[in-house]
Amino acid sequence: MSTEVLQQTKETQLTGNKQFYIESYGCAMNFSDSEIIGSIMAEHGYGHTNDEFDADVIFLNTCAIRENAEKTIRDRLKHLRLNKKKNSDLIIGVLGCMAERLKTKLLEEEKLVDVVVGPDAYRDLPKLVAEVEEGNRAINVLLSREETYAEISPMRLNTNGVSAFISIMRGCDNMCSFCVVPFTRGRERSRDPESIVAEAKTLSEAGYKEVTLLGQNVDSYLWFGGGPKVEFKNADDSTKANAVTFAKLLEMVAKVDPNMRVRFSTSHPKDICDDVLYTMCKYDNICKYIHLPAQSGNTRVLEIMNRTYTREWYLDKVKRIREIIPECGISCDIIAGFCSETEEEHQDTLSLMQQSRFDFSYMYKYSERPGTLAAKKMEDDVPEEVKSRRLTEIIQLQNELSLQNNSAYIGKTVRVLADSLSKKSDQDLSGRNDQNIKVVFPKGEHKIGDYVDVLIERVTVTTLIGKAIN
Length: 470
Ligand code: SAH
Ligand code: SF4
Ligand code: F3S
What we know:
Blueprint: E1 19-24, H1 28-43, E2 47-48, E3 57-62, H2 67-86, E4 91-95, H3 96-102, H4 104-109, E5 115-117, H5 125-133, E6 138-140, E7 163-167, E8 169-170, H6 181-185, E9 189-190, H7 193-205, E10 210-214, E11 222-223, H8 237-242, E12 244-245, H9 246-254, E13 261-265, H10 274-282, E14 289-291, H11 299-304, H12 311-324, E15 329-336, H13 343-356, E16 360-365, H14 373-377, H15 384-407, E17 413-421, E18 428-432, E19 438-442, E20 451-459, E21 463-468
Parallel strand pairs: 1-2, 1-3, 3-4, 4-5, 5-6, 7-10, 10-13, 14-15, 15-16, 19-21
Antiparallel strand pairs: 8-9, 11-12, 17-18, 17-20, 18-19, 20-21
Helix pairs in contact: 9-10, 13-15
């Protein structure tokens, strides 16, 4: 792995009982990275604390996906000034995607930030923290083509002991025109499947009941002994035959423990293929649920978003999923008011939602991100109030669809993996069914980590409510 430390650091062994505290923002990849960071810090003598006021080092693992995400971090950094006032030795580090996007700017603008580290440079973190302890500020935002942290066994943070993330790849090569991720996380690379299976085994042995395989585009996973994916087409026949695709990987992980559920996220409509769908059918423990972001329902908008599929392609994928896995849950990501989107094009998004009948969606107003193709070449010309109104229409429709889909469960029994106490009552357990819909029921004799058959009696937009029958 090649890393470049912009500010020269010394090999300094950290000693004493110092503690770090970490907050994660953004997507599951970041939460998963925080567990890798935890492991790296622990190896260098740092303990983990859940109390920011006990910490010698505070890390914010940040997200840059929308302007709002960055505003949240800036506000949090301002707030952390209070901690720093009470303890001038406190070290504050900004990690993750916002660190990568803003690089030295964070050190210059936000005087209270001591260390800035991007997603591929976490192995350097202890050295950089040591450098700060010596009175300097430190940064490493170099992206790598190989780093997957494959052999690092993540420190499970704030875990319920039931579900865990396993990162299977890093980066993204897709260059959707609105998206900052390729700039903050670099080139796509897949992690060695053996290390993935080993991590799944460790989790199963530790009593975990669910793993989620993570990547920005999991269907593009490909392992053929390492090396850049572009070299795959020149590989010899036996290398090609032995390559591990996402469908194969899914199967390998599903076989680890038939009692451990397997989920994955995110699928890209251009890459998800029948092999994956058939593998999902073959194993009961692979959850019948696919997160399949459409972003828009209009072909022209999809084209300028550089999503590389059309409305028809997307609808065909949904049809294919329902043909092969009729009970499959499908969720979506949608962006309202992308550059030059007309009213008719917005209506196409609503009709795509109607036709696809998503169980739920994550819905956003378009937020221009500096450096992306859209920021460079397109005008962010949909007025704020129009974006807001379109987003409201999208949310209202999704709420109707979710309520209709959830209502169909009334009178049916679903298998739930209980993963927490309900937020509303500690007499109720909460969990998810196969389709990733939240289910709440009176706990009775059941406990977190149990599989429970729940008869659904009533529903809301977000939740199925019922009683245990086993
Ligand atoms: N890799 C995933 C998505 C990662 S980002 C995929 O391809 O689907 C999560 C979601 O954030 C995206 O699906 C998109 O809906 C949203 N998003 C990304 N950039 C955005 C932007 N500039 N403005 C608004 N929403 C954005
Ligand atoms: Fe962003 Fe597109 Fe990559 Fe998803 S696939 S992370 S939206 S560039
Ligand atoms: Fe945010 Fe980075 Fe994830 S920008 S959505 S934390 S990959």
